Amino acid sequence: MKENFPPSVRPVRGAADAPVIPATPPDPGALAAKVRTLAPNMTRSMQRVAEAVAGDPAGCAQQTVTALAIRTGTSEATVVRTARLLGYPGYRDLRLALAALAAQQAAGVPPAVTADIAVDDPLADVVAKLAAEEQQTLADTAAQVDMAQLEAAVTALSAARRTDIYGMAASGLVGQDLAQKLLRIGRIAHAHTDPHLAVTNAVQLRPGDVAVAITHSGGTHDVMEPLRAAFDRGATTIALTGRPDGPVTQWADIVLTTSSSRESELRPAAMSSRTSQLLLVDCLFVGVAQRTYESAAPALAASYEALAHRHRPRGARG
């Protein structure tokens, strides 16, 4: 079993496997997105550090690790652990990112707009709030995506003999979307939402195949079990998760981190995480289509032609 390393120091398998490039520190502009994504799963002391750096990047950038620990009522070790969880090798790197973020804000970059939905909100307000949250989720995901990991995922999927995708409930619907997109461009792909079928298919995989696990929590057992089986058999494994430190990453060669807005009673996590997951699915699909364009273009045309008659009004010709 793999050890559960942070994404920035995740080990890679041998050179014979699909290329896996260690994650790089996020762009300063992605810091607030990382905090929003990871804070719900942090300890309370780490949350205080994360909230401080996201809320006052300019002030925190001027503080030593000891000063920030005193300010947040935590310890120096907690500050360093928080920096690493946010994707920075150490506190010094986090301070540099905070200084850059403060400069961006001083230049007039607008703050994020978020708002909870109340049970008595007019429908027009619900539409406006949901639109703002969706836009923020998409912006957060785009800002924090690790391009090296995304490139590695596209490379693996483009060369895959076969791709299996595992997801449960709302994540299962996202998995089905990825599978049908890959099928339209001639790739062999199957989405599994039944845990038993997922495992029985996973044990048939081998080097040259790809397995994709989609789990916002990063800890869905019915998704981790087939991913581990695929990993053990040498398939290249990819995790789409909102928890880059979650258990599922133990068996993932490549980790793509999704974002989500705050969960509320009228906006469960499945709603916002789905938006983020679908963005990454579209990125993977377009990337694979670009890499395999000579075969993808005729496959897409053939699938369109095969279904065209189903989209014409009855009785229409041509």
TrEMBL record:
Domain of life: Bacteria
Gene source species: Actinacidiphila bryophytorum
Keyword Transcription regulation carried by entry: yes
GO MF term (any one): DNA-binding transcription factor activity
One example of a Gene Ontology biological process annotation: carbohydrate derivative metabolic process
Protein name as annotated: Transcriptional regulator, RpiR family
InterPro entries, per database record: Homeodomain-like_sf, HTH_RpiR, RpiR-like, RpiR-like_SIS, SIS_dom, SIS_dom_sf, WH-like_DNA-bd_sf
Segments of this protein annotated with the region Disordered: 1-28
SIS domain residues: 153-294
Source organism phylogeny: Bacteria, Bacillati, Actinomycetota, Actinomycetes, Kitasatosporales
Pfam families on file: HTH_6, SIS
Domain HTH rpiR-type: 29-105
Statement: the UniProt record of this protein carries the keyword NADP: no
